[in-house]
Amino acid sequence: MPSSRILPEFELLMPQSVEEAVKLLKKYKAKASVMAGGTDVVVSGTQGFATEAVISLAKVPGLDYVKFSKSGGLKIGALATLQMVADSADVKKNYPALYKSAAINGTPQTRNMGTVVGNVMRASPSGDCACALLALGAKIVFQGPNGKREISIDEFFIDYKKTARKADELAVEIKLPAPKTGVVSAFNRITRTTLDLSKINAAVCLTVSGGVCKSARIAMGAVAPKTIRLIDSEDLLKGQKISDAILDAISASVGSQISPIDDVRSTAEYRREVSPVLVRRTIEEAIG
Amino acid sequence: MSTSVVGKRIPKVDSRDKVLGTAEYAGDIRMKGMLYGKVVRCMEYSHARVKSIDFKEAMKIPGVIKCLGPKDVTKKGYNTTIMKLLVPEEFCEVFGEIAEMFIFNQHVKYQGDAVCGVIAETEEIAERAADKIKIKYEPLPVYMRASESRKKGAFQFTSLKPGNLAGEFDEAVFPDNAYGWPDADTGKMGDDLESECDVVVEGNFYVPKQKQCQMENHAYVALYDNRGKLHCWTSTQMPKPVQVLLAELFELPMSRMRVFQTVVGGGFGVRLGMIAEPHACAMAMAVPGRPVKVEFLREEDWIASETRFPGNYDMKMGFKEDGTPIFVEANFCADKGGYYTHGNGPVFCAAAFVHGMYKWKTMRQKGQSYFTNNVPSGAYRGYGNPQTSFVQEQLVEEACGKLGIDSIEWRKKWHKSIGDETWLKGVTYASDDLDGCIDLAVKDIKWYEKKKKYAKQKGKKRRGLGIAVMNHTSGAWPMLLEHTVCTAKLNEDCTVELMASISDLGTGGHTAMTQMAADTLGWPMEDIHLNSGDSDVCGFDIGAHASRTVYCAGPAIIEACESVKKQLMERAAQILEARVEDLQMDSKKVISVKGNSKKSVDARLISKQGVYNFFDPVSGKQIGIPGQIQGYSSFLANHCSPPMGACISEVEVDTETGEVKVLELVNAHDIGKAIHPPSVEGQLEGGAQQGLGFVTTEDIYYDENGLCLNSDFTDYKMPGPSDMPKAKIILVETAPDPIAPMGAKSCGESALMGPIGSVANAIADAIGIRFYEAPVTPERILKGIKESGKTFE
Description:
The structure holds 2 protein chains of 2 kinds. Chain A is an alpha+beta fold. Chain A contains 11 helices and 14 strands. Chain A folds into 3 domains: 11-55, no CATH class; 66-176, Uridine Diphospho-n-acetylenolpyruvylglucosamine Reductase, domain 3 (2-Layer Sandwich); 183-287, CO dehydrogenase flavoprotein, C-terminal domain (Enolase-like, domain 1), CATH 3.30.390. In chain A, helix 5 packs antiparallel against helix 8 and helix 9 runs antiparallel to helix 10 (244-254). The longest helix of chain A is centred in the last third of the chain and has 20 residues, at 268-287.
């Protein structure tokens, strides 16, 4: 049986720079996992899912930042911990969905270790920051052997734990657009106990002007093989005055866009039942 | 000034060590030349026969010392539990105890059953080698529930138990396989009286397979020394019985079997008896002269050590329209798991605590345990009583609703009290203030005000209140042996070393014992030290179980200290030429004649001269009275002074998501006397957390092949500190028990029951739907709401 006390054998690589890390990725490709906080890589290692090599970012300088400017938006470095993001007053004020998804993530201990970028890269369908960042329309910056590449988070999640990151690329940064007037967001989740992975989660980011929703992004997690956007629900909301009738219609639209399963945390039936409730409540919370 | 410490909020004797991290748990032990043993468990199947074991590849790994299979260890069968030490031999046979477990098994009966072992220089090498052992299995049919394994034609787990019936209430002790009492007027039993009733309620309940989740994983170090003595350091709850069981298994006299109980990181029943002591000792015997450490992983702890008894618990109750309780009729059919171990114990106790609660005209309860392919069900705090709380307290509430009777008043009127039979036939209550508990809890939570308010509530979130009462026990006399031996050695400086095998599982037991000793002697706590856990040093003690420590071991401590005091006084009387009854001893240990403080002698001098007893060459006499003083007690309990308690919970149910928030919980406990109040409160708070887990989140899940799906803290969720409601613990000391030491009844297990029944009742109160399966998860609540057709606006 895999042991939770004895790590499996793997090669631990400790690059000193982003360039060196990318070189190692080029050499090992999918045979290496990238470790930032290690809260997922180490645990999956002890569960029998170890890779041949682990590339630790611990010695790579300059990646542990959370930078914000009113014009440039938010930049989160690959080594910025969940707690750093949760502690940022700028994040709390301008990106409430991200704030909450980081602040309730895991446990106090894992928040001090785990990173926001790692939460996205892991691409677990139940990732809380992944869900919030999908709704917020994040961009992901990769460094590869041929330089930087920036993609929208919309293109990132492909299938269960399958992403658009190329095997020789390192995710160095996640960016969020500058805050605009009328942009609101919220995140919610349902768990079994306070310190738990999400049974389901939902995040919304809306642009509201005079009670009318100009644009909408709605994301959900743990209801499909990957974190998804509810495009049909977004379409129903766009250009509409937010009313009970619209919220009813949105709730009704959720079911056809999700494909939940039974697992140890919950049942498909429950997830199906509660997803519309969570989406509705998250919209209501965003618009206040 | 009195130095009395009983009832005082003083620091626990072991808190400094635990807070500073210096307490040495079995897993912390490092010894010269120590090797590491790994128990290789069957992970692929929950029911299979081992066809072959191939150690070849494993033995090639440098650092591997030995691999052991079934043929390399004793072939004697055993049972991990200690029933045969608790009851007379004939009784044990009646109960049907069997010894069908082996150190390494060729018939795997649950996922995690031990198949073979590796001994290596390091834990890491042992782990790697274990992976290289090739084991071939032949799968056997899998039965996860009693309802499957009891069917005709099902595979037989053992020829010793036909029909896979591990245990039931045996006819020889329980006529008609039932526990209870007949109606005094008609001689009829249970629901034979149904036709006399105006209101009958019934329910078919499911109670979960809850895991103890103690903090410390099981860990052992064993050494077979060069003098042929086997030593075992273990985190067991029962060092002395484990010594006996190991001596028997390895055919050693007790003089060559030493068990040393290390600091225990939580027990809750999981360490009741043996777990992997046989494996650690068998490995040690294979490498004489070198210690071997065996330490469980958390996931191993989960799949290979016992859980609470799950199963189907059906109950029916009948009442007259004025509320008079007529009958209770019940059956608890449990999933036993792969081995006999506790047999039908908790199933019987579930019935026993029904017996101890209300004044029915008649009660009849039956119970069976059938073998299944999950880890054996065993002891977990409450031992059958939590299951009863979930079932009985819900049905009482439902009945009161139908009768239109205030359920608080009904409970006050009909619960058993002084002179009534307790959980055990023929043993009656000597004290009780359950009414006091109920009144305090009702007042504290503002029951009636809130009830009135919530009657008119609207909206998607609904609040509700629920109550549950309980009775438990203080030790298991007269059903089981309750015996503790204590030796109190008076040191030459007039301090005391107590030697008694008393387990403190984090409960505060060692603190309470020291307090009781201090007050008995009238000396400061610092002058008393409790030496426990070493079977070479300590006399007999049955171990920590059945909430017994203060109640059953406390008197041994008191008697031994009284004996020390008496011997000191007798010597003082001789020295002072006075009568013992005319003497008194103050807190500074000066013994004087009452009313004549000048006529005195220092007890310290008596102690010193007893040891350093010189011959005076001048007078030709001995200086002082010779002999080191020792006090001794071999105490056998003569009652079980059951405590009672009342718990009220307030919940909020989100009718759209099914989520339950426990907002507040008040638990009032009829403790009699709290020896160490912070420990009693700690027990009641910690127990509330486990009770809330039972009723809201906890159950072990298996796939269709019987493989565990949630064997860690990621997938199995118990409430944590951040999930705890505002919990108020009220210690009711208005009914000190006349039989109990210093009036103290038990509190160790009592805390789980109230939160379980009261939260289940509060959920039903909030949304008007009752749930018969625990845990009452959001999934079950939403399903229940949907099926009821109710809407909440």
